[in-house]
Each structure stands twice: as C-alpha cells, then as structure tokens.
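Table S2 (continued). Query chain:
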Amino acid sequence: MAGLSLVNVQDFARAMGHEPTRATPETVAAFLMDEYLRRRGGTFNYNPATNVLFELFRGSMTEEQAYLACLTTGNPKGRPFNADAIAQVSGYAAANPSTCYRIGYAAIAVGRVGDQTLYVAIKAPLVRVVHNAAHVVMPGFRMSHRPVERQIDLACSVALASFARDDFADADFEYLYAGPGLSGKREFRVIHGRDRKVFDRDEVDALLDVYVKGVALVTDAGVEVREPNLRGYQIIDPRQPGLF
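Corresponding output:
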C-alpha cells in the first residue's frame, strides 16, 4: 500500500484536484482514500533518467551515453521506460549547456498528523544557470497519469518555493514533461514558470495546510500513517535556511 507519510509532489498535486484553490480537506481525503491508497505500488521508478539529466545539461554525457545508462541501470522492468523518457528530453538538455548545481532528492516537511511528520518528495535533480538566469529543473516522466495544467503549476511551485532561495531566489521553474500526450503516447514539452500562473509561497503554504488536514481526516477514518522510508532523500524543513 502506498504510504501517506511520504508522497511524491505530483501525487500531492493530484490530491488537490483540477483547481487546487478549491480543494478542501474533505476532497483531499476522498482522493487519498479512493485513488491513492487503493492503487498498487509501482514496480520501478524513473531515477535513472532523472539522474542523468545533471550530466546532460552540464555537457559531461552525450545523448547516446545517457540512453545507454538508462538501458543498463535500475530495475530491469523499468529500463526501456527510462530510456524512452530520456530519449525525449536529451536533445533539449544537450542543446542547453549550463552551469549546474545538484539538488538530488528532497523530502520536504509539510506538517504533522499526530506524532508523525508528513513529507512531500521532490525529485528535482538540479538548478541550472545559463545567461545569468537560474532554473529549478523538474522532470515529469510518469506514463500512468496525464496531469492537468494547474497540477503542473502546483507541483512546480512547491519545488520553486523549496529550492529557489539564497543566490537563486529569482529562479524560474523548468518542467520537462515527457509523459502521456492526448494520444496516450509519450510527448515532450518544456514548461517554464514565466509562462504560467505560479503559486507564491503563501499560497503554497495554504494549500499544503489543506493537504495536511485532509491526511488527518484519513487517519481519523482509521488509516495508519507509517514511518516513511527516507533513504536517499535530503530532509528539508522550509523554516531552515536554503540549500545553497
């Protein structure tokens, strides 16, 4: 069963619905009970494709090397999917060489239910800087769900609120979407925050509060919030200083 204590930022955005500002604790709880907790866990992840983005953007890996890396690392069941995903984005990354700063995987503390801290997981591998412009890069490789536009905005806004600090306070987000298109086949889109409605930090905090209250309703219904597996994640408390 999927856990409630560590939820991927894309699943958080799904829980907030097609228009996040209209979400209530009750609608969040309904999504978590009816969809999130009922689904079977995935048998693989997109970590291999996510990890090679850093090397592609800084020019230390070719497109062919990135594709081969995805075909030969990680869960064998996921290798063709990772290779297919990186094939969609590698041309763009290779054509935009940048100064890169590695973020890695982060677990953002968003609140508490009972004695358990809740986290939102963000796999944003890097901040890249080119022509004095900084971008928080976040990939979207899943083929299991096609997000609506406001869900993309929300997921990226959470990443931006978490990572765009200190020297990168004016950073934009760059969402590399390589998930299902209208036809169901994988498509590639580059989405920048400057072209979207980005939620500011106060709005993000308010929406996270709605989410935490929704989780509380789920636990009131008898669902256990288990200790999360945070191995491989950097734990971040937004109240602490930034990463850089």
